[in-house]
Amino acid sequence: FSRRHFLCSCLWLSRCAPVKAGEMTKGTSSFGKRRNKTHTLCRRCGRSSYHIQKSTCAQCGYPSKRMRHYNWSIKGQRRKTTGTGRLRHLKIVHRRFRNGFREGGVPQPKKRTAAQGSSNASK
């Protein structure tokens, strides 16, 4: 074979040969090679939205001091608003509010009812 024949045969082979997975394409075959995760668990909101390279949470905006929220997402505000969590402090404040925020008092002694007195007398 001459050099010209050799080059033509190489071109023909390169056109007709099947493409191996991962070569010469950015599409479907490339998606199978993704092994490492971009997001991990967030310390503040607990969701798997903390971007490792950016070091920010896509859900709550951690580590910024203020929570991430936008007024165009009404359902998102509803999910994150007061009353959707444990209310560790507010439920105590609500109980104290119903009783007038009283402090330092002595509870009044409980009065015995007639049913309790008769049951103690029969013993």
Automatic annotation (TrEMBL):
GO biological process: translation
Gene Ontology molecular function: rRNA binding; structural constituent of ribosome; zinc ion binding
Keyword Metal-binding found: yes
Record keywords, A-Z: Metal-binding, Ribonucleoprotein, Ribosomal protein, RNA-binding, rRNA-binding, Signal, Zinc, Zinc-finger
Top-level lineage group: Eukaryota
Gene Ontology cellular-component terms listed: cytosolic large ribosomal subunit
Residue numbers spanned by region Disordered: 99-123
InterPro entries: Ribosomal_eL37, Ribosomal_eL37/eL43, Ribosomal_eL37_CS, Ribosomal_zn-bd
Leader sequence segment: 1-21
Stated family: Belongs to the eukaryotic ribosomal protein eL37 family.
Cited function: Binds to the 23S rRNA.
HAMAP family: Ribosomal_eL37
Protein's recorded name: Ribosomal protein L37
Organism, scientific name: Argulus foliaceus
